[in-house]
Amino acid sequence: MKRDKPKYKQIIDAAVIVIAENGYHQAQVSKIAKQAGVADGTIYLYFKNKEDILISVFNEKMAVFVESLQDIIENGSTSKDKLSRMIENHFNVLATDRYLATVTQLELRQSNRDLRLKINSVLREYLQLLDQILIDGMLSGEFNPTMDVRLARQMVFGTIDETITSWVMNDYRYDLIEQVPKVQALILNGIKA
Amino acid sequence: MKRDKPKYKQIIDAAVIVIAENGYHQAQVSKIAKQAGVADGTIYLYFKNKEDILISVFNEKMAVFVESLQDIIENGSTSKDKLSRMIENHFNVLATDRYLATVTQLELRQSNRDLRLKINSVLREYLQLLDQILIDGMLSGEFNPTMDVRLARQMVFGTIDETITSWVMNDYRYDLIEQVPKVQALILNGIKA
Amino acid sequence: MKRDKPKYKQIIDAAVIVIAENGYHQAQVSKIAKQAGVADGTIYLYFKNKEDILISVFNEKMAVFVESLQDIIENGSTSKDKLSRMIENHFNVLATDRYLATVTQLELRQSNRDLRLKINSVLREYLQLLDQILIDGMLSGEFNPTMDVRLARQMVFGTIDETITSWVMNDYRYDLIEQVPKVQALILNGIKA
Amino acid sequence: MKRDKPKYKQIIDAAVIVIAENGYHQAQVSKIAKQAGVADGTIYLYFKNKEDILISVFNEKMAVFVESLQDIIENGSTSKDKLSRMIENHFNVLATDRYLATVTQLELRQSNRDLRLKINSVLREYLQLLDQILIDGMLSGEFNPTMDVRLARQMVFGTIDETITSWVMNDYRYDLIEQVPKVQALILNGIKA
DNA sequence: CATGAATGAGCGTTCATTCAT
DNA sequence: GATGAATGAACGCTCATTCAT
């Protein structure tokens, strides 16, 4: 399996750094190769083309979110607790890795429609897990049972996304983690029964 | 004033159409010129460069939002009422003009970091009016007086933005206006006192 | 009409020179542009892509052959006379322009299958005129009336082509024009009644 | 001797197949290696470089022609008979092996000038045997004793070559062998005493 | 002998912007 | 003011060849 080889990860990590430091449109394949310490051509032994690198970056990093969210769903107690932890985890991961935050919140969105659609389908898995928490909470009476799940999910994700994007756009000037309790409160308030 | 001349508006409108129909990366200056019925060179009599066209598009269209929001603030009764109307108005404008919705929610976000920062500063005026509604509501006791205004604003705007973007990405498959009361409820719930 | 503008001809002529001097695979667009005294991008105002340049070279030059052959058919007396003159003309044109001879006999044949098929369809017009001479001669009793026209044409063209190609491959070491009467004799002998 | 080892022949045969099926420019070394069932690097144990493979293909296949032509010269009766048999043999070999026909008549000609010059020198041996038949016939009075041998050879070879190439380019749509008597007649007519 | 992962030079094409008319 | 022909910098990808194992 290609993705288990060390160079695969090397290139993915290099791509995140190059994109974060240079911006999406200035992240040439040759720059990524150089950063990864391999020849340009080597990139193409592991990735079909440039788009494939970018999708893979998103895939690999999103997998971390999905995995931890699955863990939260399995081990969390109430739905409120799960949702709170999911928010906390989302903020934690991106607060810890500013390169990743820049790439996912700003740079990767500059990709064209096609790539964005592909990225969205990767995101879907994460959002479906979120839906699951919301539905469980509605059934258990923790969340408003009459609300529209899609809208609720968009509110949760939209709030998280806007909050983190603003933080990145403001050059990480304030402490992101500090916002977590307030974000949790806002969101839980919005959907509570 | 250049922006009062007929060709200025012609070019702005042409840009929206061309971007909506071709996507951001296929919206060449020559296409915009053709759509506007002017020569390529003429564009540069009205705009400094391509980026200037795009910012101006956002500026001009955002002005509509700002104006109507000012009107709402002046004529609305309670803060809840104002916020509800602001949400309704935002959805209405974009539901009515799908070209504009595509351009603002999808295409213009593919611009580079610099352009997006400039767009954000255009957006700021709108967000400041939103802040004003929120602060008024906190002072009047309609909204939770202990909440973080910035976060509240990000929740409001993030929810609206995510909702409309999803609608555009799903090819306008469902009725956007129908969502308004539910969005209002979710948001007001989140920030209520 | 693009092909009437001076730069069109400039680029065509530059392409012949560059291909003749550097070989087909070393005839980069930038070299052709430089030789033509225009910018790289200017090429693309007159030609769709590199292949289009090469087909156009063949088209334009082939037109000269076709035109003079039409003239020969109109003004020649007997079919033998017409065929003789056609051979003479073919040799004359290429003996006079060694760049063109190199390009048509050696370099353009290195193009890929697709391009060669397109070149062949340009050649077809010329070969149809040749067929006409042959058929007329068969009907008038000058040429063997029982022969296969396609084969006869292939013999005529194959002989001419091989003769000239050999001359080019041998670096124009001998006088091509001197061969004309002998080639005429060989060919006319082959197909005479 | 490398050329006696089984892998040498394997690679040569693989090259013919790969070139015939994919075209000259799509016949990568790695494809040939795969077809031959060896690793890419192994190719370079038997051939200096890619060009060497192609020349060797031509060499090996041409050897078949030369050998049969030598046989014809030894066992044929008159010069006319030998020339007729040579034509028949040439058509037979290529009509029987369409892969080889495609490779020699179309694909190998896309190689660059240098390679083609080398191929030509391989061809020389064959053409010298042809010259020998022609000279013998001129001396014996069967062929026109005043003709130019080089031209006669070019006529013979040019006709054969053009005939077979046309057949290949027309996707083998008609029966090549059927043409043989007519080609023989045309050629013999052209050079007869 | 045989392998196959790694290398890195090379090029057609686009398009924002200019400027002579 | 208006035109549109001309400019030229910039980059993803392929593939013949090498060499450590």
TrEMBL record, chains A, B, C, D:
Keywords annotated in UniProt: DNA-binding, Repressor
The entry's DNA-binding region: 28-47
Gene3D superfamilies, per database record: Homeodomain-like, Tetracycline Repressor, domain 2
Residue ranges crossing the lipid bilayer per the database entry: none
> Where does the HTH tetR-type domain start and stop, copy by copy?
5-65
List the SUPFAM superfamilies: Homeodomain-like, Tetracyclin repressor-like, C-terminal domain
Give a yes or no for keyword Cell inner membrane in this entry: no
Q: Which PROSITE patterns match?
A: HTH_TETR_2
Name of the molecule in the record:
TetR/AcrR family transcriptional regulator
What organism is recorded for this protein? Lysinibacillus xylanilyticus
- Phylogenetic placement of the source organism: Bacteria, Bacillati, Bacillota, Bacilli, Bacillales
